[in-house]
Amino acid sequence: MTTTAEAPESVELAVTGMTCAACAARIERKLNKLDGVHATVNYATERARVHLPPGVTAADAVEVVRTAGYDARPATGVRDSHAEHTATVRDLRGRLVIAALLAIPLGNLSITLALVPGLRFPGWEWLCVLLAAPVVAYSALPFHRAALRNLRHGGASMDTLVSLGVLASFTWALASLLLGTGEAGYWLGFGATAAGADAIYLDVAAGVTTFLLAGRYFEHRSRRSAVGLLTALADLGAKDAHVLRGAGEGGVEVMVPAAALRAGDLVVVRPGERIPVDGEVVEGDSAVDVSTVTGESVPAEVGPGDQVVGASVNGHGRLVVRAVAVGVNTQLARMRALVERAVERKAAVQRLADRVCAVFVPAVLVLAALTFAGWLGTGHSVRESFGPAVAVLIIACPCALGLATPTALMVGVARGAQLGILVKGPEALESTRTVDTVVLDKTGTVTTGRMTLTGHTTFGAESADQVLRWAGAVESASEHPVGAAIARAAGPGLPPVTEFRALVGAGARGTVDGRAVLVGTAAMVAAEGIEVPGAARTWLSDVDTEAATGVLVAVDGAVEGGCAVRDTVRPSAAAAVARLHGLGLRTVLLTGDRPAVARAVAEEIGVTEVLAEVRPENKAATVRRLQAEGRRVAVVGDGVNDGPALACADLGMAMALGTDVAVEAADVVLVREDLTTVPDAIVLAGRTLRTIRGNLLWAFGYNVAALPVAALGLLNPLIAGAAMSLSSLLVVTNSLRLRGFRASGRGNDKTQE
């Protein structure tokens, strides 16, 4: 008996209750303590990706999250995440409005009475308490609730610091009033340093709460905008579709949900509608806007036999499309899945930030206690020692550290997806920093992979067009790319071919209009006992120097002419290579083709280094050889034989319309058939990485600089609260600048026929 090992299950959980990066770090640690479980928790998206071994279920993971003091459930999509962010923003807005309405008059009253003691009236202190109490009890409730939850589970987070600071300020003020421990006059100074804030801290309790709520409100609004980029991808697909039910002209259109479509269905797409499937046009002509999927601004003209991509918008004509890929198998769905997986993964710099966050809050609590003890032990009063300790609690901000990487990664990856560039994860971003050589596969990458006729000639009495007509008739029954190019060039209305026979790798033969026609290489023609004239050999030599492939056409045992075909170079290739050189990168053309063909293509697009006649199985070894020379190599490819090279490269980039092997092996997937997306992808990845590093530099620098300043008594707690709020907001806002990234390439690689 044989047993099959169960495959590990991967689940995504929507986690609620996280309020800072320390929360995410704690949940991640708890999940990873389960035997065999590997989990990553993303604070920015509020998602946990959990890989479960056999015997551990999603319910077990949810229970661990709940045991840690948070809640979780299986995630159902980015649209739900966007809705959760919206609900959080709405709740924060309500609490912020109440806090502001009470804190502003409290601040005005405090300033006025502090500056003009003669205006003080009996009971003014209790009026201040009345104004501050709702702010502390209601508006600051999310901080207190999270702090209490952390306390119950033996943890601490930013909310612990905030709650302690706010409650300590409010409690100190009440103690001053009830026990008379405050100084006469209850001075409410608003100086820049803690020494200016005297016995009553009601203004600090209300003001800090308002500042922090404002910061968290704008932070969540910004994060909602970032998550909205992912939601926009989910919303691109059509929701409903018109399907033809019944055969022939009697078929009727039936509207069904797009989710109910199956491969093989005939879908009717009216002008202006989104195409709901990836498929093939079987009827109609139109111009299709693919900009929402690929970023290509020029509409693609399509007709019967052409492929269309789901979520693109039909133009002026009615189309009938046969569904080839539906649901999760469409290009749009694969794009969305790649993007969602990318934002779940962690960069090396983020793992460092996570380790810092894990010890950050306990360290701040210790620092606050030491600050209080230090001031008290150096002869200062309890009142004077209290201010710096509160400032330390409030100014510390692990959130900026926690948001620095995931927010920038989320915005950068989502923006790339909008432009037809799918970055699979942070490792790809980090690889772009050191890449110095870009290896371009020729066939299907630099070229379209579609042969076109570049010329035809005659060696006998028949005209060149007649020779092409005979060759086209025979090749119309062939599936070989060279034969297909000849048949397309010969045009419609070709005479029928009988007794057709394909000669694998050499040509084809058949009978056309009663005449025996043979189309193939010079070697095949000679092998058939047919003499190859000198004029034909000279022509073949000339064709070879032009990087084309020449085939001969023999009729009734005599060579009558020849056809030259060539793989078409993408119009965007030269511009892409020029931009890569402008970025200081070296380019290499890699191909299994003849050196003459490779050199001709390289000269056309501006590549100076050529590696020709490289067999598919040797491509990966060639990349490793370049790496052994000290180069950091990016490979751009599309085929099955490119998979190993893409996998071993420092950065693998695959054309999305290539094979699944290439797409799976690559780090970056290029949706558009436009090579200018290669430099665009490198520039976007580099800019995203610089944004991440800038965020982390600010977040680390802020905390390193701010905590000693607060501990030395140089910051009023009110100013500390404002600074802490602004630090997180700055990180998120800086990340959102990536939404403005513009692709500079404008190539259009749609093959013209």
UniProtKB/TrEMBL annotation:
<keyword id="KW-0812">Transmembrane</keyword>
<dbReference type="InterPro" id="IPR023298">
    <property type="entry name" value="ATPase_P-typ_TM_dom_sf"/>
</dbReference>
<dbReference type="Pfam" id="PF00702">
    <property type="entry name" value="Hydrolase"/>
</dbReference>
<protein>
    <recommendedName>
        <fullName>Cation-transporting P-type ATPase B</fullName>
    </recommendedName>
</protein>
<dbReference type="GO" id="GO:0005507">
    <property type="term" value="F:copper ion binding"/>
</dbReference>
<dbReference type="InterPro" id="IPR006121">
    <property type="entry name" value="HMA_dom"/>
</dbReference>
<dbReference type="GO" id="GO:0005524">
    <property type="term" value="F:ATP binding"/>
</dbReference>
<feature type="transmembrane region" description="Helical">
    <location>
        <begin position="696"/>
        <end position="712"/>
    </location>
</feature>
<keyword id="KW-0472">Membrane</keyword>
<dbReference type="InterPro" id="IPR036412">
    <property type="entry name" value="HAD-like_sf"/>
</dbReference>
<dbReference type="InterPro" id="IPR018303">
    <property type="entry name" value="ATPase_P-typ_P_site"/>
</dbReference>
<dbReference type="InterPro" id="IPR023299">
    <property type="entry name" value="ATPase_P-typ_cyto_dom_N"/>
</dbReference>
<dbReference type="InterPro" id="IPR036163">
    <property type="entry name" value="HMA_dom_sf"/>
</dbReference>
<keyword id="KW-0067">ATP-binding</keyword>
<feature type="transmembrane region" description="Helical">
    <location>
        <begin position="123"/>
        <end position="141"/>
    </location>
</feature>
<dbReference type="GO" id="GO:0055070">
    <property type="term" value="P:copper ion homeostasis"/>
</dbReference>
<feature type="domain" description="HMA">
    <location>
        <begin position="9"/>
        <end position="73"/>
    </location>
</feature>
<dbReference type="Pfam" id="PF00403">
    <property type="entry name" value="HMA"/>
</dbReference>
<comment type="similarity">
    <text>Belongs to the cation transport ATPase (P-type) (TC 3.A.3) family. Type IB subfamily.</text>
</comment>
<feature type="transmembrane region" description="Helical">
    <location>
        <begin position="718"/>
        <end position="736"/>
    </location>
</feature>
<dbReference type="Pfam" id="PF00122">
    <property type="entry name" value="E1-E2_ATPase"/>
</dbReference>
<keyword id="KW-1278">Translocase</keyword>
<dbReference type="GO" id="GO:0005886">
    <property type="term" value="C:plasma membrane"/>
</dbReference>
<dbReference type="InterPro" id="IPR023214">
    <property type="entry name" value="HAD_sf"/>
</dbReference>
<keyword id="KW-0479">Metal-binding</keyword>
<keyword id="KW-0547">Nucleotide-binding</keyword>
<dbReference type="InterPro" id="IPR001757">
    <property type="entry name" value="P_typ_ATPase"/>
</dbReference>
<keyword id="KW-1003">Cell membrane</keyword>
<dbReference type="GO" id="GO:0016887">
    <property type="term" value="F:ATP hydrolysis activity"/>
</dbReference>
<feature type="transmembrane region" description="Helical">
    <location>
        <begin position="96"/>
        <end position="117"/>
    </location>
</feature>
<keyword id="KW-1133">Transmembrane helix</keyword>
<feature type="transmembrane region" description="Helical">
    <location>
        <begin position="161"/>
        <end position="180"/>
    </location>
</feature>
<dbReference type="InterPro" id="IPR017969">
    <property type="entry name" value="Heavy-metal-associated_CS"/>
</dbReference>
<dbReference type="InterPro" id="IPR008250">
    <property type="entry name" value="ATPase_P-typ_transduc_dom_A_sf"/>
</dbReference>
<dbReference type="GO" id="GO:0043682">
    <property type="term" value="F:P-type divalent copper transporter activity"/>
</dbReference>
<dbReference type="InterPro" id="IPR027256">
    <property type="entry name" value="P-typ_ATPase_IB"/>
</dbReference>
<feature type="transmembrane region" description="Helical">
    <location>
        <begin position="389"/>
        <end position="414"/>
    </location>
</feature>
<dbReference type="InterPro" id="IPR059000">
    <property type="entry name" value="ATPase_P-type_domA"/>
</dbReference>
<feature type="transmembrane region" description="Helical">
    <location>
        <begin position="356"/>
        <end position="377"/>
    </location>
</feature>
<feature type="transmembrane region" description="Helical">
    <location>
        <begin position="186"/>
        <end position="214"/>
    </location>
</feature>
